[in-house]
Amino acid sequence: MISKAQYLGSYAKSKDLTPPVLANIDQLLNKVNRLMQTAMADGVMFQVNPSTKSQVAGQKNGGFREQCCTIGAPASAHKLGMAVDIFDPYEQIDRWLNTSPVAKVEYESLGLYFEAQEATKGWSHWSIVKPKSGRRFFKP
After folding, report:
1. DSSP 10
2. pLDDT in tens, 69-102
3. Which residues, including other chains, have CB under 8 Å from residue 23's CB and lie 6 or more apart?
4. Quick one: which of 9, 16, 76, 139 has the most CB atoms within 10 Å?
5. What are the residue ranges of helices labelled H in the chain?
6. What CATH number is associated with residue 97?
C-alpha cells in the first residue's frame, strides 16, 4: 500500500498542495491501494524501491510533483495528484495488468488508466485521468 506521505515524498510541504489537489490524491490513493490489494490477493508481489523506501518508483518524482519540477508538463497528472509510478523492476505488475482477467475487472470498475508497458521499463504508471485516446493502456 502507498501512504499519502510516501506519495508526497519530499514535496509534503509544497504550496502546490491545494484542496483540489489533495482531494485528487485521496481519490487516487484509494483506487491505487484497492487495485494493489487485488493484485496481492492474485499473487503479485510489490517490491520496495530502495530510493523511496516504498512502492513509489523513481528517485523522488514517481508520486506527486510540484509545478516547478522539470519532469512532466504543467498539467501532468503527477502535478495534479492524479497519477503515480509504481516500482516494477521485474515487469510483474505490468504483466498482471495486461493479462489477468481479475485485474481487468477491478481496474475498469475503479476507473484507472495505465501507460503502455513498453513505455515504462522498471515502473508501472497508474492514473485516474482518462487519456485523450480513451484507451485503458496508452502511449505517452
Report:
1. G
2. 999 888 899 999 999 999 999 999 999 999 999 9
3. none
4. 9
5. 4-8, 19-41, 92-99, 101-110
6. 3.30.1380
